[in-house]
Amino acid sequence: MESVVNVVLPVFGIVLCGYAAGRLKLLGPGSSEALNGFVYWVSLPALFMQGLAKAPLGLIFDGPLIAAFLLAIAAIFVLSLVVARLLFPGSLGAHALHALAASFPNSGYMGIPLFLLAFGEAGSLPVIVANVAQSITVFFLVLFLIELEGGTGPLGTRLLKIAGNLLLNPFLIGAALGLGLNASGIGLAGPFETLVKTLGAAASPCALFALGLFMVGKPITRGLPEVSWLAVAKLVLHPLAAWLIAAHVFALPGETVRALVLIAALPTGALVFVVAQRYNVFVQRGSAAVLVSTVLSLVTISALMILYDV
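The chain above was modelled as a monomer; its predicted structure follows.
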């Protein structure tokens, strides 16, 4: 219970503060976009750079951890894609975003702050590695499926554009810079280290506050059966799949299993709504999935923290 009071409640408390500020219009129009922009382009990449510049390379390139993490996502993604095709009529793009909502954890805006509070800077490495892995693989797959159906122009040109955008992803840039500093032996030192640490330290509170701002005004009343299924898939089936694969397929150490289960138990990532809005597909249900799973994850994450005696 102590972990819920000291770790989980403060995390959700900051989200609630952001939501309240948005509802009361304390920060004015455009505040959500501005704070999200700072977190996305500056603070989280700095945190990625800091974490990957200092950690041993063997811990970063942990093949079994990455494989177990991606296999759990793949299992839920495929299951949800089948469920969407059978039960919820829609386009291929909508079904791809449906599957993404069921399998894409909010490891950036919520996972990193949660892990930093619970396990400290050293213990946050698995969630950083997981974030980079899913950004390269799952995110690209969903964009490919959307472009395959609804994009304009030659498919090859569209895929090159997606690949280019992926390479410009600030999370990947921050990770690449951190890995480069690590592999070269230069590392972080002096004023540059202080700058990166200071920017990275802002990631946790700003990301959670931005998540609260983001959730203001998102509708949840339509498509409730589909949204309810997505919440169950994300908050129950995904961590269960992660546990089965990590503990029984790869037989990973207990701390690694715990990290993968907690990452999988995170709510639907806000990027689902961002992509849905950009392509004008699955917008209402995508935003509802983010909101509902975020609220319900207070219960599921708290239960897991108590179970693992964090």
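The radius of gyration is 19 Å.
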